From TrEMBL:
Stated name of the protein: Nif3-like dinuclear metal center hexameric protein
Coiled coil: none
Pfam families in alphabetical order: DUF34_NIF3
Record-annotated membrane-spanning stretches: none
InterPro entries (alphabetical): DUF34/NIF3, DUF34/NIF3_sf
Protein keywords: Metal-binding
SUPFAM superfamilies: NIF3 (NGG1p interacting factor 3)-like
Family of the protein in this entry: Belongs to the GTP cyclohydrolase I type 2/NIF3 family.
C-alpha cells in the first residue's frame, strides 16, 4: 500500500505535536522526495551509511532522530553535506527527522522507550519546575546494586557502559537519553540513586562521586535507538506501510 508523502508528514506532526516544541533544528520534512510512500527506513542518524543502506533497501522515506540543518552549523552545501543531500535527491528519497519531539513523547519517545527496555517504572519528569528539561525519573521493580544495573544495561543495549558506582542500592533512577549529562544536577535534586544518560563530561564524575549517587553513560547512539523504531512502527501500522529499522554501528 502507498500513501501520499504529505499524509505521512501530517500524521507524524500531529502525533508528535512537533510544532509546539522549540528545537535546535527543523523538525519534520527536511528533504522532499517522491510524492508516494510505501516503504520507510528508520535509523538514529541520517549518516551516509544509513542513506546508502536506505537506497539499497529501496526506501521512499528515511526517518531519523538526528537529521540536518542544526543551528549554528555551516550552511554551505559542500563536502559531507553535499554528498548526503545528493544521495537523497538523486534517488528521490525524503528525509523526515524529529529531535526533541521524539525525546519527550509519552508513547514512542526515546526516554519512555528506554525505560521499557530497562524495566524502569516511569514516575514523572526529571525537573517538574522546568518543562524544557528533557528526562524522566522512575523506580526499579526490584532494587539492585549499581554494578548489577550496569550489567543489565550492557546486556540490553549491547554496549559496555561507563559506570561511576555510588554507595547505595539502586531504587530510584533519573535518565535522559543522548547527550544529557548536564542534567545530573536536576537528577541529584530529585533524589535519585542513579542517573543514566548517553554521554559523560569530565565534571560528571565529580558531581556523581561528591553527591553520593551512581552514574552511567551508556552511549548517545545506544540510548536513542528505540524511539525512532517505535515511531516507524507506529506510522507503518497506521498506514499499512513497510518499515525497516537499520542500526548503523556507532560506539559513541
Amino acid at each position: 500500500m502507498a500513501i501520499a508523502l504529505n499524509t505521512l508528514v501530517e500524521e507524524a506532526e500531529r502525533y508528535l505535536n512537533a510544532s509546539r516544541i522549540q528545537d535546535y533544528c527543523p523538525n519534520g520534512l527536511q528533504v522532499e522526495g517522491r510524492p508516494q510512500v510505501s516503504r520507510i527506513v528508520s535509523g538514529v542518524t541520517a549518516s551516509q551509511a544509513l542513506l546508502d543502506a536506505a537506497v539499497e533497501a529501496e526506501a521512499d522515506v528515511v526517518l531519523v532522530h538526528h537529521g540536518y540543518f542544526w543551528k549554528g552549523e555551516d550552511p554551505r552545501v559542500v563536502g559531507m553535506k553535499q554528498r548526503r543531500l545528493k544521495t537523497l535527491l538523486s534517488h528521490d528519497i525524503s528525509l523526515l527527522a524529529y529531535h526533541l519531539p521524539l525525546d519527550v513523547h509519552p508513547e514512542v519517545g526515546n526516554n519512555v522507550q528506554l525505560a521499557r527496555q530497562l524495566d524502569i517504572v516511569v514516575e514523572g519528569p526529571l525537573d517538574p519546575e522546568n518543562p524544557r528539561t528533557v528526562g524522566l525519573v522512575g523506580s526499579l521493580v526490584e532494587p539492585m546494586t549499581a554494578s548489577d544495573f550496569a550489567r543489565k544495561v550492557r546486556i540490553v543495549l549491547g554496549r559496555e557502559p561507563l559506570l561511576v558506582e555510588g554507595p547505595q542500592m539502586i531504587r530510584r533512577v533519573g535518565w535522559c537519553t543522548g547527550g544529557g549529562q548536564s542534567y545530573i544536577d536536576q537528577a541529584i535534586a530529585a533524589g535519585v540513586d542513579l542517573y543514566l544518560t548517553g554521554e559523560a563530561s569530565e565534571q560528571t564524575f565529580h558531581s556523581a562521586r561528591e553527591n553520593g549517587i551512581s552514574f552511567i553513560a551508556a552511549g548517545h547512539h545506544a540510548t536513542e535507538r528505540y524511539g525512532i523504531q517505535a515511531l516507524g512502527d507506529y506510522l507503518a501500522r497506521r498506514f499499512a506501510l513497510e518499515h525497516l529499522f537499520i542500526d548503523c554501528p556507532n560506539p559513541v
